[in-house]
Amino acid sequence: MNFLFNEEQTSLGETVGQVLADHAALTGPDPSRGSDAEVWAALAELGLFSLLVAEEHGGVGLGLVDLAPTIEALGAGLAPPLIASTLVATEAVNRLGDAEQRAQLLPGIAAGETAIAIASAELGRGNDPVFAECGLHDGRLTGRKIAVAGADVAQMLLVVTRTQSAPVLALVPTDAPGVTIEPHADIDPSAGLCRVTFDNVAVASAQLLGEGSPGALDTLIDLGATAQSGMAMGIAEVMLKRSVAYACEREQFGKPIGSFQAIKHRCADLAVAVEAGKATSHYAFWACSEDAEDRASAASAAKAYCGEIACNACNDAIQIHGGMGFTWELGLHRFLRRAQVIEHAVGSRAWHYERVVAETLAAREVA
Amino acid sequence: MNFLFNEEQTSLGETVGQVLADHAALTGPDPSRGSDAEVWAALAELGLFSLLVAEEHGGVGLGLVDLAPTIEALGAGLAPPLIASTLVATEAVNRLGDAEQRAQLLPGIAAGETAIAIASAELGRGNDPVFAECGLHDGRLTGRKIAVAGADVAQMLLVVTRTQSAPVLALVPTDAPGVTIEPHADIDPSAGLCRVTFDNVAVASAQLLGEGSPGALDTLIDLGATAQSGMAMGIAEVMLKRSVAYACEREQFGKPIGSFQAIKHRCADLAVAVEAGKATSHYAFWACSEDAEDRASAASAAKAYCGEIACNACNDAIQIHGGMGFTWELGLHRFLRRAQVIEHAVGSRAWHYERVVAETLAAREVA
Amino acid sequence: MDFTYTDEEHRFRLELRAWLATALPEGWGETVFEPEDEEERYLFRRDWDKKLSSGRWAGINWPVEYGGRGATLVERGIFAEEMARAKAPESLNIIGHNLAGTTILHHGSQAQKDRFLPPIIANEEFWCQGFSEPNAGSDLASVRTKAVRKGDKYVVNGQKIWTSYAQYSQWCFALVRTDPDAPKHKGLSFLLIDMSSPGISIRPLRQISGESEFNETFFEDVEVPVENLVGQENDGWRIAMTTLAYERGPEDCLGRQVRFKQELEKLLEVCAAEPTANGVLADDPVVRQKLGRSIVEVEAMRLVALKSFSRILAGDERGPDASVIKLYWSHAAQRMNEAALDILGPAAVLSEGDDDAMAGGRFQTSFLQSKAFSIYSGSSEIQRNIIGERMLGLPR
Amino acid sequence: MDFTYTDEEHRFRLELRAWLATALPEGWGETVFEPEDEEERYLFRRDWDKKLSSGRWAGINWPVEYGGRGATLVERGIFAEEMARAKAPESLNIIGHNLAGTTILHHGSQAQKDRFLPPIIANEEFWCQGFSEPNAGSDLASVRTKAVRKGDKYVVNGQKIWTSYAQYSQWCFALVRTDPDAPKHKGLSFLLIDMSSPGISIRPLRQISGESEFNETFFEDVEVPVENLVGQENDGWRIAMTTLAYERGPEDCLGRQVRFKQELEKLLEVCAAEPTANGVLADDPVVRQKLGRSIVEVEAMRLVALKSFSRILAGDERGPDASVIKLYWSHAAQRMNEAALDILGPAAVLSEGDDDAMAGGRFQTSFLQSKAFSIYSGSSEIQRNIIGERMLGLPR
User: For B262, which of A220, C381, C390, D43 could close a Cys bridge (C-beta 3.0–4.6 Å)?
Assistant: First the structure.
């Protein structure tokens, strides 16, 4: 019985956090993407992308739960979301890929040469990340995806699409003929969100991941939702720390503002939310790693709850920082913006709460 | 341009408040119904039930908005809900009754001799106050209503029922053959909630109120929702006043607890909520009186919003009173209990928010 | 990260589960419940406590020499979960075990240990807690009940409040002022007071739910032998703080969580069965959002407790974690209870004893009871101060 | 209770509406908008302010003798509503009209009135506000910017912050410390400072939305003639308090409410049109609950303002009502903006300039801007103190 991370897991997260901290611009006021390539290179050099890859393919063979503190660090450091999406895609290939696909993809991933962007969201489907208009018919992919983080610099796209009968996941190189990638104008330019259009793109059967596996899409959603929950908690924790630090230092009426209950109690409530959110997210990481029975419910719980906590934490931090909080220079807006990207990635809060209920009711019927 | 009550309206409310205050047991810790008949008699003597009745039928001919402060006082004083329901039913008879019905019913109402309980809620319909299983077929009423406040002491029931084709409102004497009235075991015994069963009860056409008028049920809902919103705000305001008084008087750590921001700011937020809720409720009273275009939306807005504010206000008051707050003796639980009765009367919060949206979208289409 | 139990821990769980199956009446929690009458319920719980003692399931964390099992923290967590899972009655002697007993174990003289511990673990003597006073609630250190030493006795005068089960207790574990001139935290002491002493009177305090768990207890010239002083005179505050840290730890939350989850299960059961105009309650998307949040929060209660639990297992001091846990479960449980009534629609008002009440009217009682969660055992305001100051390091 | 307007009030509204129809460019607010470039927008707003003056629609509440219309409170409410309804540009010279002008009107010398009022009402001189400082935010009375009298001049040193539009202003209306030895509320004075004086430097402060409405303004040995002192030396705090009460009244809220309602209308329009897997966004019951609450709260903003408005009309003093109004609209508007992004699903992140953005990406900008509502013009914490102490009478 131990719900803590071991030293290796923790120090991995700390190391990644330090690498990100070396690139101060990541959390600076300017949301442009200047240092993305350097950050990727530094993390690749550290071996981040080899961690989830099995030893036979040149990796370390860790499980997703081993990377939980690392993914929190990616969130806290406002790392480009493409990094986490590549890790999620790696795990998806581990679980859903056949031997050939694994052999073909994993060495490049482990070497940091294959960045994978996940293309799931579409317009016109409400907040549902599952239903796709984007269709695969007779080996041809046609449709449009939005908010694909890092598609413009990735080598590969992992696309949620569907045939007549069922959802499928397709691996499509970003330079495949018929693929058009345009950057969005959006709330968080640093996330590198792109619109990706597929115009009759040829997709061979070998490019389909987990074909015929009814749980393939669920697997991707669970992994993605869990990773997003980790990044959300990274943000929430930074917001807590910065709020507390400012509340200790900033004086008004002759006292540090943290001595006023209006501020102190808000920080305390935020600390409790961070504790609850992290526990929920950590459990989802474990449930994914172990393929626990409640994996889907744990992942959706984490996504819904942690997304909410991160958004609230950003609001709290801005309010506690007062006038400074809404200055561009202080940079809190960077976290506020990124929290929105996370909130709307892999399905909205309402969709995931809905999924928690569906899973829970289904489990009751089985029991 | 004047959104205030005039002196007559205000002093009417104050007078009713004073009469209720004379019956201290109404807001005492014991939720039983000892003084209901005396309270009714005192208010009847005051002429309360004649206020909405036209002069030709022995009344004063005031409009619903004139009674807004009075209905708030009924809420604040935890008056038996049958009093407000009789006022609502009076106004329903004014608006929907034909000449004969008015002549027959209104004099008795004005004299305080006809108390009317409103039977709308049913089990098994979710939170929808509109859809009725309780059916009227071939002049016979059959079905079961729950949470009918004061049915056991009322002379008349105003029943939401339906024929094959449409909802109708039926006036049924409580002593009609086939009517069975049993008191509930419920969260607020002082509300006099009853289960009313109709077993093949004969209902003549002359007993139908607003027959054929497509808006009859909406009218009853708007009047009822508005009255409930007023009572809710009466409760919320008492909770604010008692919280503030206690926060000024109770000392901990050598200071009145109201000097701590945790308490002070909670009171301030409650005061703002009370202000917003009252404004919303008062507007609904006005919109009902004037049959304004946005009557339905205003009434539902008031019911949803004020119900929420009253429930929160009770929670706030209990928390601010600390240990004393959850003692039986202090009696705050009486308001907490009544607020639940109000919250679930005439449709739930979610149903009314839903109705606000439906009305607003419909108005957009017209515009 | 590892949620598995050792074989030994698993055996412990099975042993307890097996014992509970025989100790509780047939159909317990399904068709058989605690008596509704308060006096009868007291007798029932007293008997249950004695049964626990006879099975060596009372004070399992105490050392073996005093009749305990020297249970590990994990075993205590398992104990809390299994008791809750079996819907076992609550112990009447929590104060005896968790507060009085624990304090005597740590700070009592050998004579006190010999005199008081055996009847506690045997549940032959029941204890109440004399901490709060009408003017010392959140500000506990401003206790005014005075104990003046006269020869070999203290003479106690004052009033305590929220003394749960005082009417059924043989002893009171009381915080009293022994030095009125010292700064307020410095003049307090712990006395063990025989509840049959002349000069003690008890007035029950009903709660908003209608139950009378609590009391006001008055002391008028009550004589207490000086040997019933625990620890040093005027050292009571320090002792109280160490003792209170043990009162509400993750073990407590783990047990509560199981009970809250049982409530939530009942709510899901109602939602899955209760018809609406177009299906059942659980089909309503708005209802589902509320259910979803409650499901997540009730699960988070468990996870938050497990985090803290793991930290203590790993050697961390018990600190403000207890406040985080308490603040979390109390508000999450209140939200669940609010959601339940919200969801039930017009039936929300029907309570125990009404034929039409959902799930026997349990949600209404739980709703009322839940209002106390954010007040007792340290109000949420106090917990937020503790978290802000002791965990986050914000200035006073 | 009566929501009708007198004939005269109605004529006032129609006159203004007619004027706006001709004064604003064709297609304004539909196809024609303010320039995006900040400098251009400033020029545009300056021109608009001059146009307002030329139509006698600037400073309508001022007495006729100073170029105003002596507008009644109701007319001011109508003015705010109509300006908002026409989506008219915001005035650049709010500080000139509402703060500097109002204060000079009430507390200025005749010479000051003659010198300063005409160019304000003509919008020939623009003003910025020198109140807050880096260390005097919520605690405004701890202003440190010093003004030391030397002969017929004050020499000003210090730093102001949140000086909106300082870069476009000719004058600054500044609260400065003239007696460093007096208790902090007692040593403050008001100075009118020519922004072209040597020693003034300005550093723009960007907001989280990317816009730069605010500045830091530095004063280094800036000389201000003593005749630019408003009221008595060291009487500045009292003057500031009376002036600030006029800054955020119900008129302000009525105008804002119209603009928030326009946002909400846009959101409803998007929800009614945007397809989902099974209908449009507005068919989703969970979306509808969020919309419902926003509709109610935006309407309540108007009603809360009207209540206060009516009380002032009935002769009540302007008091903590303004804090109630401000606290209400700021949080209600934030909730509406949160709800908007919540509802939009994956498109929530797409902003102005993206082809796929909903309603041109306006919700994203509004969302970011809304975060300042609960901070500027007195933070919510300060408003709660004011309400608690001045309206409810809670102790300090």
Answer: C381
> Does the beta-carbon distance from A265 to B260 stay under 8 Å?
no
Range of the domain at B18: 7-115
Residues A225 and A199 in one domain: no
Nearest CA to CA, how far is D124 from chain A (Å)? Answer: 30
Tell me the C-alpha distance between D47 and D59, whole Å. 16
- Domain shared by B275 and B311, yes or no: yes
Same domain, A178 and A189: yes
Q: Are strands D214-225 and D200-205 parallel, antiparallel or unpaired?
A: antiparallel
Helix, strand and coil percent figures for chain C, each rounded to 5:
50, 15, 30
pLDDT in tens, chain B (367 residues): 899 999 999 999 999 999 999 999 999 999 998 789 999 999 999 999 999 999 999 999 999 999 999 999 999 999 999 999 999 999 999 999 999 999 999 999 999 999 999 999 999 887 787 778 899 999 999 999 999 999 999 999 999 999 988 899 999 999 999 999 999 999 999 999 999 999 999 999 999 999 888 899 999 999 999 999 999 999 999 999 999 999 999 999 999 999 999 999 999 999 999 999 999 999 999 999 999 999 999 999 999 999 999 999 999 999 999 999 999 999 999 999 999 999 999 999 999 999 999 999 999 887 6
Evaluate the CA torsion angle D256, D260, D265, D266 in order and state its sign.
positive
Minimum Cα–Cα distance from D382: chain A residue: A262
Q: Which residues of B113-125 are buried (b: 16+ CB within 10 A; e: fewer)?
A: ebbbbbbbbbbbb
Decide if B55 is inside a domain: yes
Residue at a domain's end among B66, B87, B115 = B115
CATH number of the structural domain spanning residue A104: 1.10.540.10
B2 found inside a domain: no
Point out the residue among D132, D349, D353 whose CB comes nearest to the CB of A340: D349
Question: Is residue B1 domain-resident?
Answer: no
Among residues A61, A64, A80, A73, the alpha carbon closest in space to that of A12 is found at A73
Q: ipTM, 2 decimals? A: 0.96
Mutate to test the interface with B, among C208, C338, C382 (most CBs of B within 10 A): C208
- Answer with the one of B155, B182, B209 that is the final residue of a domain: B209
**Exposed/middle/buried for residue B101 (C-beta within 10 Å: 0-12, 13-18, 19+):** middle
CATH of the domain at B230: 1.20.140.10
**Cα(A51)–Cα(A108) distance, rounded to whole angstroms?**
13
Alpha carbon distance D245, D240 (integer Å): 9
Work out how many domains chain A is built from and give that number. 3
Name the residues of D annotated as catalytic: 247
DSSP readout, D228-287?
GEESSTT-HHHHHHHHHHHHT-HHHHHHHHHHHHHHHHHHHHHHHH-EETTEEGGG-HHH
Within a domain: A1: no
Q: Which of chain D's residues have a Cβ under 8 Å away from the Cβ of C286?
A: 285-286, 289
> Domains plus CATH for chain C?
7-92 (1.10.540.10), 127-232 (2.40.110.10), 248-391 (1.20.140.10)
Q: Are residue B174 and residue B228 in the same domain, yes or no?
A: no
pTM above 0.80, yes or no: yes
**Six-digit token pair at D207?**
């907001």
Same domain for B288 and B300: yes
- Does A319 touch chain B if contact means CB atoms closer than 8 Å? no
What's the CA gap between D45 and D96, in Å, rounded?
Answer: 14
Does B333 lie in the same domain as B237?
A: yes
Give the Cβ contact number of residue B189 at 10 Å.
16
Query: How many angstroms separate the CA atoms of B318 and D171, rounded?
Result: 52
Can you tell me the distance from the alpha carbon of D201 to that of D218, in angstroms, rounded to the nearest whole number?
Answer: 5
Six token digits for residue C175: 């915080």
Residue C211: closest CA among chain B residues belongs to which residue? Answer: B328
Q: Are residues B255 and B357 in the same domain?
A: yes
